[in-house]
Amino acid sequence: MPHRIVHMLRARDAGRRPVMLAIAGDSAAGKTTLTKGLVECLGADRMTAVCVDDYHRYDRKERVGKPFTALHPDCNHVDIMEQHLQLLSMGEPILKPVYDHATGELVRPELVTPKDFVIVEGLLPLHTRLARACFDITVYLDPPEPLRQSWKQQRDCGKRGYTPEQVQAELDRREPESAAYIRPQRRWADIVVRFAPVAGRVDPPGTPLSAELLLRPTIDHPDLAGVLAEAGPAGAETAMHLSLHRDDDGRPVDALHVHGYVQPNESEIVKKAIWERVGQRTGDGRLDADALGRFGEGTSDPLAITQLLLLYHLLDADHRQAA
Ligand SMILES: Nc1ncnc2c1ncn2[C@@H]1O[C@H](COP(=O)(O)OP(=O)(O)OP(=O)(O)O)[C@@H](O)[C@H]1O
Ligand SMILES: O=C(CO)[C@H](O)[C@H](O)COP(=O)(O)O
To answer: Closest ligand 1 atom, CA of 51?
Structure first.
């Protein structure tokens, strides 16, 4: 079973290997935004980011008239992606294909040498068992569909030269493949992240979105009890609280709610408490706190807190390897 071999190779005592984080989700779900803050916080000298949409089999022109969209596994070199993920997870370099999203062309491949931490983001990083076996931490970004569609409209019209009608037609064409291949990856995530407004609240324009994080017991999460105690008694005006949810399979799972509408000083208390836990695992490395929570032209504390939690997991996985 090839996925077992990856686990065996990665577990054997062969020195340090990169910590691998997957961030999966549909187009414009916020993967690049989440990734960019982490890379800038840890530093590009310590972290490598790879987008697996670079494994598209056809360029934009070639895809016209094909019976599938860019979301379909047949429209991607999934087997080569798997090979490359295995190599990266063992610290080996790859010659990665490159898809230029601005022009829709496949361009010159690039040499990627993994640093201590590797983030792999894209449409299908958790599609196969072998790909999943390469990761230490897996995340699925799950914004409500209307929000994702508005992000895709803005981004594709603003940066990729599409008209609103073209974007809507493409979203409609992709929907069956989103349902068949993208959304099923949610099942394999250790953490499912949903940025969204809180239902029933009317907040002033510009209020950052809140975040709900399902913390599945597939990895060891930090003990948040101390952080929550510092945040104060659970309530609408505190920055964060935990609740018990039923997961898709009916099992109970912790849900962490991070409120975007609270006063900045409330978020600061939570950020400081998590930073202290992150700091215990940092070693000598420097971290740039200002890089967290940035999107487009705005800033968001729920985004910063989500990134901080992922930072904790990355450093914790590295710390355990060193121990
Ligand atoms: N937490 C957030 N709060 C506000 N806006 C956000 C957030 N996350 C993402 N966005 C916005 O959504 C848009 C799409 O985000 P992003 O480019 O990160 O998505 P993506 O999943 O990487 O897309 P693709 O895979 O299609 O390239 C961007 O304009 C970004 O500013
Ligand atoms: O879902 C996507 C990730 O951004 C892209 O839309 C896909 O990678 C290719 O699409 P396009 O034809 O617009 O370049």
So the answer is: 25
Q: Which tokens belong to 197?
A: 């407004």
Contact 97, 84 (CB under 8 A): no
pTM of the model: 0.95
The verdict on the CB of residue 31 being under 6 Å from ligand 1 is yes
CA-CA distance, 180 to 165, in Å (whole number)?
24
- Domains, the chain, ordered by start: 1-138 (3.40.50.300), 190-323 (no CATH)
Around Cβ 172, how many Cβ atoms within 10 Å? 9
Place of tokens 């992709």: 174
Query: Among residues 59, 57, 111, which one has the least CA distance to residue 79?
Result: 57
| pLDDT classification of 236: cutoffs 50, 70, 90 | low
Burial of 149 (0-12, 13-18, 19+ CB in 10 A): middle
For residue 32, the ligand closest to its alpha carbon is 1
Is ligand 1 within 6 A of the CB of residue 33? yes
Nearest partner of 307 among 264, 266, 258, 262, judged by Cα: 258
Asked whether the predicted pLDDT for residue 1 surpasses 60, the reply is no
Q: What are phi and psi of 252, to 5 degrees?
A: -70, 145
For residue 60 and ligand 2, the question of a CB distance below 6 A is answered with yes
Cα(59) to centroid(ligand 2), Å? 10
Q: What is the mean pLDDT of residues 209-238?
A: 85
Identify the CA nearest to 31 among candidates 46, 41, 45, 21: 21
Please check whether residue 280 is in contact with residue 29, taking contact to mean a CB–CB distance below 8 angstroms: no
